[in-house]
Structures are given as structure tokens and as C-alpha cells.
Design the sequence.
């Protein structure tokens, strides 16, 4: 009898704790890529062949969502993706970068070295 109470208590605890878990859809990152000429298929592959898409990102706060959006600006495929525009929503509401911009990549520190480099070689 005591064992069944223990199991029931554990199950109730887990059920109540799951209500507090971060919903991965709270933060959504919106990607729009501009491909280097002739590289559209490769550049857009991450969005299932589309120029734009939205993907959920784990974030426990609006600030964490801002950080995830800024990180999404990284571009290591210099000869494939010309540039990106990254916007984000948190709990369905559009959010801005820490400097108040819609496009997080406008604040991306490596923008000058990672964007507009279609002819660059690695």
C-alpha cells in the first residue's frame, strides 16, 4: 500500500513539474537568407529549400531568446550565404535586439567579416 502512494506521489510531482518546463515554442527565430549567386539550393537547404523559415529555439526568457537570435546570425558558409536577416518572437510577441533593431544581424559583431563575402575563399 505504501509503495502505491509513493508511486502516485512521484507521478503527481512529475506531472506538476512538467507544467513549469519551458515551452520550446516560446522563442521562435525567423530566418531569411540571401544566397550567393547560383547557391540558392545550398543556402536555403536549412529552411527546407525556402528562402525564409521559422524555427523554435530553447529560451527561458526574452533575454535568452534575444541571445539565441543574435547567435543565429553566424555565417560560416561565406561562399554560399551572402547575408541573413534574423528576427524573433517570444511567446508570440515580436522582440527587438538589445539596441532596439528588428534585425538581430544588424548588431552581429562579425557581420563585416561573415556577410557579403560570396567570392571569399575559406
Sequence:
Amino acid at each position: 500500500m505504501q509503495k502505491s502512494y509513493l508511486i502516485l506521489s512521484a507521478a503527481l510531482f512529475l506531472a506538476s513539474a512538467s507544467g513549469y518546463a519551458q515551452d520550446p515554442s516560446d522563442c521562435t527565430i525567423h530566418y531569411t537568407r540571401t544566397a550567393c549567386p547560383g547557391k540558392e539550393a545550398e543556402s536555403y537547404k536549412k529552411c527546407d529549400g525556402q528562402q525564409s523559415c521559422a524555427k523554435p529555439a530553447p529560451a527561458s526568457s526574452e533575454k535568452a531568446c534575444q541571445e539565441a537570435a543574435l547567435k543565429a546570425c553566424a555565417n560560416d558558409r561565406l561562399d554560399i550565404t551572402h547575408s541573413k536577416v534574423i528576427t524573433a518572437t517570444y511567446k508570440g510577441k515580436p522582440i527587438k535586439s538589445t539596441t532596439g533593431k528588428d534585425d538581430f544581424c544588424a548588431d552581429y559583431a562579425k557581420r563585416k567579416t561573415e556577410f557579403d563575402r560570396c567570392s571569399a575563399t575559406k
The helical segments are 2-18, 40-44, 62-71, 111-114.
